[in-house]
Amino acid sequence: MDSPSGPKDDTTSAHIHVEKKPPRSDARARDLLAATFGLVADLPATVATGCGLRVPYAMTSPRPESVTCLACREHAHAQHLRLAEEIERLGAMPGAVVTADRAGQVAEHHRDLARRFAGDDGSP
Ligand SMILES: [Zn+2]
User: Which stretches does UniProt call biased (Basic and acidic residues) (predicted)?
Assistant: First the structure.
């Protein structure tokens, strides 16, 4: 069987997706470097999304308000909640590099993002 499987190319999708990689990925830094040093050719033209597609990088956004793909919103919601828990665990470790206070702030930031990805911000 040689039917294509795996991520589909969806370059015509009108939806904005999230990148599948964790939010702390260095995609934005890479973008900046590319803009600064003209390394655009080294950038992937497409990225894997939370819903299992491959779309042009420009069709993704880390901003909850910009993401219109429902599956990606759910993916990002779960991912930010998981990150928040991970960060709080790090902050609670003896000898942690982050204080519990700081970890709490960062965790709260991710919980806020998770809420916004879930559309639970009090407005439709
Ligand atoms: Zn998506």
Answer: 7-27
Candidates 102, 75, 77; CA nearest to 90 is 102
Q: Which residues contact residue 10 at a Cβ distance below 8 angstroms, ignoring those fewer than 6 apart?
A: 53, 54, 55
Q: What are phi and psi of 54, to 5 degrees?
A: -120, 125
pLDDT at residue 46 greater than cutoff 70:
yes
CB 27 within 8 A of CB 46: no
56 CA to centre of ligand 1 in angstroms: 12
Domains of the chain: which residue ranges? 8-117
Pull the structure tokens for residue 124.
Answer: 């439709």
Q: Distance from the CA of 53 to the center of ligand 1, in angstroms?
A: 7
Element (H, E) at 117: helix 100-117
